[in-house]
Structures are given as structure tokens and as C-alpha cells.
Amino acid sequence: MTSHPPQQCCTVGVKHEGTATGEIKMIGEISAYFAYPKDRQTSNAILIMTDVIGHEFINVQLIADQFAANGYFVVMPDLFQGDPLPLNRPPGFSVPDWLKGPPGHGPDKVEPVIEETIKAMKGEMGVKRIGAVGYCFGAKYVVRFMAEGKGVDVGYCAHPSYVEAEELKAIKGPLCISAAETDHIFPPPKRHESEEILKETNQPYQITLFSGVQHGFAVRAEVNDKVKKYAKEQAFFQGVAWFDEYLKA
């Protein structure tokens, strides 16, 4: 495994202020957040796979809006079928128990949501190429869906969790990772293992390490802290630059 399973730190962070400009709509039975670029074009799209806080969390909705402002059609489905975790769970809360369920949030439950979303994006939504963004929990599914024929062309992850070595070895497109200096889920040995695997994939890759931040910083950082705010913003720009280079036709 190239990153550890989600833990209590995956639920901790700061709620940001702002007004989301996208909208919640349904893809069949799946609730999803949509954000459109100014020209409403959908050919180049970003599929956001969230952390355990889910698609209705204002922080990640604001991020989706910013990707849209940079020219991308954005779709962010509810990976948890109405059962995300509220922010800042109390000490002792067991994320592994929540993952096991019931109802459970393993690949057997999450992957059908992503598969249906990708099918709709490449069907009636008119998407030609998909870049996937994964935060913490969602990073595993960015990597899984970068395998041959799974539907994701380019990937970007921040502070990944639960990614298996075999999943990382199987990617068939460019992958970019933003990592935190302090991260028990993606610590230095796991980061270095990921680097060695990525070298062998023969795919473009980038791993950027940000000082002064912890797991979750790209979504839930304290933006009143200058160092953390800078890291959060630069991680976002890293993702935009990656998609501008490898996703846009």
C-alpha cells in the first residue's frame, strides 16, 4: 500500500467562507455538484472525487467553482450515497468502522457511482476528456480510474489515502500529487515508495511537498494562517497547471 487507510485526521479541518456558484443536480439516482466555465463548454471536464466530508461541503464546492473559473466543466458526485462524515469528528470516532458500514463505503459501493457518472459525462454531457481530482479518500479512485479503459485521462491528487501499490502501477496517464510535510496517512516512506512506482509507469508525474501543513490542507486548511493559505492555493494552482498541460486538447 502506497498510502495508509483514512483515519480520524481525515475529518479534521476548517470550514471556509464563501458562496458556491454551482448547482446540485441528479445523475440518475446520484446527487452531484456541477460547475460550468464561462463559455459553458463541456469537452474538457474535471471529475472531483471528494474526501469523506462529501460533495456538499462548501470548501470543496468553492474549489470546484475555481476549476470552472479556469475553463473546466466540473462534476462532483456524492460518493457516499447520502452518508458523508460531518467535519471535525470527536476523538475516538472510528473512520474504519464508518468505511465498513453499514451501509459501507468500499470500492463495491463507490465505484458504481463513479462509473455511472463517467458514463453520463461522456454521453449526454458531451465530455471528450476527463481529468480527475482526488482529495484524501477520493485519491484512491482517481488512481483506480486511471487504469486502462476506466475513463480518466489525467489525474491530480492531494494528500492521498488508501492507494494500493498495484493500483498505482496500473495508471495509464499523467498523475500529479500534492503532499503535506506532516501526514501520517502519506508519510515519507509511502511518498518515496510512490515515487519509485511512478518512475516505472513511464507516465508523466509530479509530486510536490508543501512545508508547514498537515493532511487535508488542500481542502481544509486554516486560511488565516499565511503559510497554510499559501500551500492550499499553490496546491490548487498545481492541479490547474497540470490539467492545462495534459488535459486540454
Model description:
- By secondary structure, this protein is of the alpha/beta class.
- The chain is built from eight helices and eight strands.
- It has an eight-stranded mixed sheet with strand order 1-2-4-3-5-6-7-8, with helices on both faces.
- α1 (58-69) links the parallel β3 and β4 (73-77).
- The longest helix is centred in the last third of the chain and has 21 residues, at 226-246.
- The model has no long low-confidence stretch (mean pLDDT 93).
Short description:
By secondary structure, this protein is an alpha/beta fold.
Overall shape: it is: globular
Biggest β-sheet description = 8 strands, mixed
Question: What is the strand tally?
Answer: 8
- In percent, how helical is the residue content? 25-40%
The number of distinct helices, counting runs of at least 4 residues, comes to 8
Mean pLDDT: 93
Widest sheet: strand order? Answer: 1-2-4-3-5-6-7-8
Distance between the termini: 33 Å
Q: What percent of residues are in strands?
A: 15-25%
Q: Unreliable stretches, pLDDT < 50, 5 or more residues?
A: none
Whole-angstrom Rg: 16 Å
Order of helix and strand elements from N to C terminus: EEEHEHHEHEHEHEHH
- Given helix and strand content, the structural type is alpha/beta
